[in-house]
Each structure stands twice: as structure tokens, then as C-alpha cells.
Amino acid sequence: MVANTLPDRDNTGSPCDRRSRLSGHFALLECGDRAISTAIDTRFAFQQCINPDCEATYAVDEVHTGCPACGGLLDVSYEWDRLPVPGSLREFESAWSRRYDPLDFSGVWRFRRLLPFAPEDKVVTIGEGQTILQRSPAVARYTGLDADRLFLQYEGLNPSGSFKDNGMTAALTHARMVGAESAACASTGNTSASLAIFASTTQLFKVFVFVGSGKIAYGKLSQALDYGAKTIQIQGDFDDAMQRVREVCGPAKIYLCNSVNPFRLEGQKTIMYRVLESLRWEVPDWILVPGGNLGNSSAFGKAFQELKALGLIDRIPRLAIINAAGANTLYQLYGQQGLRWAEGRPNQNVVSGFYDEMDAAGRRATTLATAIQINRPVNLAKCLRALDVCDGVVREVSDQQILDAKAQVGRGGFGCEPASAASVAGAKLLREEGVIAPGDRVVCILTGHQLKDPNMTVAYHTPETESSRKLLAEAGAGQTPFANSPVVVENDIERILELVRQFA
Ligand code: F0G
């Protein structure tokens, strides 16, 4: 069971007090070359409240999903000046020749010197993070960018088919460090698939996943079921499931794996390291990412802030977070109501006023991009910090724009699920607005695999069927300009040949 240890409040900042009790477990490695070059000293990692009026610190082996002192979000922080920080990002290239070692094979842990909280013998890895960045001239044309300037980062290539595996490996590593035997999450589908695959593959944890009833794409639900996770369907949506899982995890001593867990975000930082790695360590001009619970955007901001502070990059790219119009809390607060990080003191009255008004109107998140159907993003404050660090912008796109962009990603690349295409729809919008220039180097994060939500893909490409029309019309996405409809033909060789010649 997880030891939800009592808060070890420490406002004095004394590094000794907040050091992990796990440091004694620091793994001595059998593998000689790794011991010299990459062994991780976890004594200098700790947790810290991001609220500047609190800044309480906690040892790395405590389990919190919020600051016990003030309720704020926690960061995993490091005493970098006491750690062997790489002199240059190029140093990570040496890990490529050690792919026989699971830690260097992992696209997350080969960067472990930039997330040094875990003893290596506690790392829980299933080979996550083998993802690629691909230039896409076809999608560039669609967005209005110069042909060689748009890159797609395919996080759908992870073992469970979404970016979540980057975070899950880190959260479950921490779970293992603290001796947890069971873990849980609320999910719009991908987090549950990720937690479930880690549990089935490693057999280290019993897992519970909480999903909104009828609110999750079939591909994702099928994964949780097939991997053997205890799947609890709450009558409600993600926001309801999130609230309930938080209420359950504390008393039941279950380890919570949502992105409110700061260790999750440490893993998700590595998506940005891999983008830089693929660009041979050159910093792009823009990173575009869909916004849901705002974990990714928060992690990306932290990654760049740290890299800059460590002198490993000389500039920070701009960040664009794209909401679905039917789940646009961030867009409303940041874009319309001017909410800002304000050096760690965002105006809470604006936030609570917005939520009160939302509750009074009975407004629930509604979008075909079910992965980001979220109205109460738990990482809002960290995301505001990321926007501040990255001179960010926030936009909303309609379901129509999302599905059209998704069809273009399919036609010009590996494809993605609807939520992921928000990043490409956002690139097109920001190009049209002139915020992004045609020659800017732009990276769109494709967060989930195309096969996560085949129903939506088939509906778009078969708009003539009754069920498709209904599904698309409900979301106001009645147009299908890029539909590639199947052609029905008699089972007759002459007719089939005639048809094929027509398209040849
Ligand atoms: N894209 C996909 C495919 C997702 O599954 C999610 C979140 C997001 C984008 C949004 O990312 O929360 O970091 O802003 N899915 C969560 C889940 C909520 O439960 O699978 P975020």
C-alpha cells in the first residue's frame, strides 16, 4: 500500500531535510559504462509547491497530488547545481549506441539526467517514447506554411498509442519507489489505456480506471478492458470521474496517475527533448499542442524553462495551446478574460467566477474530440506558467476544423485521433491570422494514434450513411470536404476492372 506520508513541511529550503529517504537505495549499477556516464543520484530531487506564497518542499518519496500546506500544484524540482548536468544536449546521442539497455532504449529514460528523481533499479519501463518527428509537406500546404516548415510529432507510436506512456512510465516509477501496489486514474480514454498496459506488461500493480459513461472512444475502452484493468464507468463525464478518483485514492491508499501527479509531467518533458533531438538540437519557432487537462503544455513549459536555465538551449520556442471550442476553459480564461500567470499569482476570482458561471448554466464539455472533452483542467496554473515562459497563445477550433485537419493528417501522414488534429487546425488558424509566418518552423504534437477512434474516422469518410450524418451533425461538423468514401461495386470482375481503370 502507498504510504501517504504526513507533510514534511519545510519552508526553510534546507536541502538535507527534503532529501529523499530513498537516496540510500541509490542503485549501484552492474553495467560499467552506464555507471560512469549516466548513473542517477536522486538525492537532489524534491517536490515543491508552485505557489510563490508557499513554496513548501517535500521529499521525493512522499505521495501528494497537491500541496498539503496550501492546496497548490506541486513540481518535481532539482538542485541542479549539485547534479552532473550534461554540458550539451549532444551528449544524449551516446545513449543511442546502448539500446540494449532498457533505460537507454526508452525515449523517456535515456534523458534521465534531466529528470533525476528515480533510482535506476526502480524504473518501470515498457519501451515507451519510440516516437518520430516527420516533416510533412502535404499538411504544411494545408496549413499555409512553406512545404518544409511543418513537422508532426507522432506520439501515437507509443506502446498504448498515445503520449500518455511518457508520463505513465515516470508516475509508475515513482509509485514503485514508494511501494505502491495499486494505482488509478480518471480518463477520457488514453490515460486509462496507458495505465492498463503498464500494469498488464509489468504485473506490478493492480489498477482501477474511472471513465465517464459513454464518453470514451471505443479503441481506448477496448484497451483498458483487454489489458485487464478494473474499469469503473461513472455516470457523468471526465470532470466528474476526475473528482471521484481523487476522493477515492486518498482513503483507499491508491496511487493516483493523472497529470495532477507531478511525476507524470517529468516524463512528458521528454517529448520536447525528442523533438529537439530530431531537429539535431535546433529549437523550432513554434510548438502546437491540444489542450485538455493541460498536462502536456505544463510539462513542455517546464522542459524549456529548465533547458534554458541550464544553458542547454539559447532560446525558447513559442507555445500554442489549442482547445476544442466545446471544451474551451483555457481559451475563455486566457484568451477572453486575460487571466495570466502573474508571477505565480493568477487572479483566482476570475477562475472561480468562470466556474461558478459554468455551473450555474449547467455547461458541460462537448466535442467530438473526446480526449479533450474537459472543462475543469487540473493543471491550469502550471499551464499559465508555461504560457508565460513560452510567450504562448491559446486558440479554440471547432469540431469541423478538427475533423478536416484530421483528414489532412491522414492523407499526408500517419494519421491521428480527433483531439490530436486540434494542433494542426490551430496551425492553420494561426497562419491565417498571421501570428505564425509561412517560414516559421512549426511542430504539431499528434498526441494519439489514428486507430483510437475509428468510428469518428469512418463517420467522416462515409457521410452518406444515416449514423454518420447523425454523429457529425450533433457536433456541428456536417461538412466532409476531404471525405474518401468507399465505392460500392457488384461482385463482378468486369465492373471491378472498369472501376479500377477509372481511378488508375
Ligand atoms: N490529446 C489526447 C489524444 C489526449 O488523450 C489528451 C488527454 C490530450 C490531448 C490533452 O492533453 O491533458 O495534457 O492537455 N487525455 C486525458 C486522458 C485527459 O484521460 O486520456 P492534456
Structure write-up:
The chain has 504 residues and is α/β, with parallel strands linked by helices. Strands 4-5-13-10-11-12 form a 6-stranded mixed sheet, sandwiched between helices. Strands 8-7-6-9 form a 4-stranded parallel sheet, sandwiched between helices. The protein has a 3-stranded antiparallel sheet with strand order 2-1-3. Helix 5 packs across helix 9. Bound molecules: ligand F0G. Ligand F0G binds next to helix 6, helix 10 and helix 15.
Would you count the extended β strands for me? 13
Instruction: Give the structural class.
Output: alpha/beta
Helix content: 25-40%
- Please summarize the sheet with the most strands: 6 strands, mixed
Please give the alpha-carbon distance between the first and last residues: 63 Å
Form type: globular
Tell me the β content: 5-15%
In angstroms, what is the radius of gyration? 23 Å
Bound molecules: ligand F0G
With strands numbered from the N-terminus, the spatial order across the biggest sheet is 4-5-13-10-11-12
Q: Whole-number average pLDDT?
A: 92
Number of helical segments?
18
Low-confidence stretches: 1-37
